[in-house]
Design a protein that fits this description.
Number of helices: 17
CATH architecture of the largest domain: Alpha-Beta Barrel
Bound molecules: iron/sulfur cluster
Helix content: 40-55%
Strand content: 15-25%
Mean pLDDT: 94
CATH topology of the largest domain: TIM Barrel
Strand order of the largest sheet: 10-9-8-7-6-3-12-11
Number of strands: 17
CATH superfamily of the largest domain: Dihydropteroate synthase-like
Number of domains: 3
Low-confidence stretches: none
Distance between the termini: 58 Å
Shape: flat
Largest sheet: 8 strands, parallel
CATH class of the largest domain: Alpha Beta
Structural class: alpha/beta
Length: 442
């Protein structure tokens, strides 16, 4: 966490000379804490204070970029322990480990399966991020596998090897792809850091615990290797979450720069259910990247949905544009359904209307992203607001009938809405799952 205005004030000369453009040193300190001005505005800072203030201006967890083009992955730059404090910024990268001792055909098939792991949910495209190639045999086979994977997927690649020759070959092949190098340990630190520096590749630094990782990170930083991802090895879930949480806490709360990097967790479960459970645990606290073996769509959909929920700003519900949506080949006799502009509400209704195969209009009313009952309770989904939306979105021009279907949960407003809008109000099902049967009988 950065210094507060008062912490900064204590470091200033306190002469109130006004040369910075502020009336007092305190006023300047407050603006500096908000990052609204630069430290260069005060010409009276000692070199020591300048270093301290510059260091506090850096993000507590470094932003690390890997990959290239539109599949580039950015992790880090997080600022809070809990999402209700602000939000989590950079969603965990989800990746898959491929063993290089598989046959070419098996590798190609698995990578193609990974490429297909894309889903649409509440209007957002959910995708996986990385493919890691792990060395099991000689360097020649590893390099061949890297070549094959690189031409089969645009995703970010991870080179998992302890063999410097294999690593160099892989990095040479992937010039311009900015792969993640896995990993520097106390045994290979100098060799691997030299290659990471030469190829400007981000590097995983691996230790058995946070203390070891911290020491290695300091050594790497002193060699000019600063694009790091930290890992504390294979452990039980509790212990691993302990490491991930402590690392984040030390970086954010204690400004420990040696741990101010995003983290990575490798999951080596054979049971696919336990694998998902472990991966979800690390996504929630606080892995920047998870690497797993399973590529079943049901596993990945669960993790992508979970990640989407964790990384949604809790203060800004997912919303869609409030408007009139024609679904299918609508005409002037098509039914009209009302819902809110909360993404989950809209897309649930949309899915059921599409499933019914009956063309219909959906009007999403602007409820500031609240769901039906919440919006009704907060007076954002009222007969007056619905009537306003009907007029604004031109439903009278779109259909020749005068009927509206409202969600069953707000049946209580039907009389008032009928009076205000002039439409006959039909109370629809409470749950969206009832929409197909309801529309067929309408
Ligand atoms: S220039 Fe420096 S010493 Fe002068 S008022 Fe501003 S902060 Fe204080």
């Amino acid at each position: 966490m950065g210094l507060s205005g008062l912490d900064i004030y204590k470091l200033l000369p306190k002469t109130n000379c006004r040369e910075c453009g502020f009336a007092t040193c305190l006023a300047f300190a407050m603006q500096l804490a908000k990052k609204a001005v630069g430290i260069d505005k005060c010409p009276h800072l000692t070199a020591e204070v300048q270093d301290k203030l510059e260091a506090q201006a850096l993000p507590p967890i470094k932003l690390i970029t890997m990959g290239s083009g539109d599949k580039r992955l950015e992790i880090g730059n997080e600022t809070v322990m809990f999402r209700h404090e602000e939000k989590f910024h950079r969603p965990t990268g989800i990746g898959f480990i491929l063993e290089d001792n598989l046959s070419d055909g098996e590798i190609k098939a698995k990578v193609e399966k990974i490429n297909q792991l894309k889903f649409e949910r509440v209007g957002q495209s959910l995708e996986v991020n990385l493919v890691a190639i792990r060395q099991n045999n000689g360097s020649a086979r590893f390099i061949d596998a890297v070549r094959l994977v690189s031409i089969t997927t645009p995703l970010v690649l991870v080179l998992m090897t302890n063999d410097a020759q294999a690593l160099k070959g892989g990095l040479e092949l992937l010039k311009g792809r900015n792969p993640l190098v896995y990993h520097a340990t106390k045994e290979n630190l100098n060799e691997v850091s030299k290659l990471a520096k030469e190829y400007k590749a981000p590097l995983v630094v691996y230790g058995e615990d946070l203390e070891q990782v911290s020491g290695l990170a300091v050594a790497l930083a002193s060699q000019g290797v600063n694009d790091l991802v930290i890992e504390t090895g294979k452990k039980g879930i509790c212990e691993k979450i302990g490491d991930l949480t402590q690392g984040r806490r030390l970086a954010l709360k204690k400004s420990d720069r040696s741990l101010g990097y995003p983290s990575l967790a490798v999951i080596e479960q054979d049971d696919p259910y336990e694998e998902v459970q472990e991966a979800a645990s690390y996504i929630s606290k606080y892995a920047g990247i998870i690497l797993m073996k399973g590529v079943q769509p049901w596993q990945v959909l669960a993790l992508l949905t979970f990640r989407q929920n964790i990384y949604t700003d809790p203060q800004k519900p997912l919303q869609i544009e409030p408007k009139l949506y024609p679904i299918g080949q609508v005409n002037d006799k098509s039914p009209v359904l009302i819902t809110t502009n909360f993404s989950l509400s809209y897309y649930t209704v949309l899915g059921e209307v599409e499933a019914s195969k009956i063309p219909a209009y959906i009007i999403s009313v602007d409820t500031e992203g609240m769901s039906v009952l919440t919006a009704w309770a907060a007076e954002k989904f009222t007969p007056h607001k619905i009537t306003e939306s009907l007029n604004k979105f031109g439903i009278k021009e779109a259909v020749s009938h005068k009927q509206l279907v409202i969600p069953g949960y707000v049946a209580v407003m039907s009389g008032e809405l009928q009076d205000e809008s002039g439409f006959e109000i039909i109370v629809g099902p409470k749950e969206a799952a009832g929409i197909p049967a309801f529309l067929k009988n309408l």
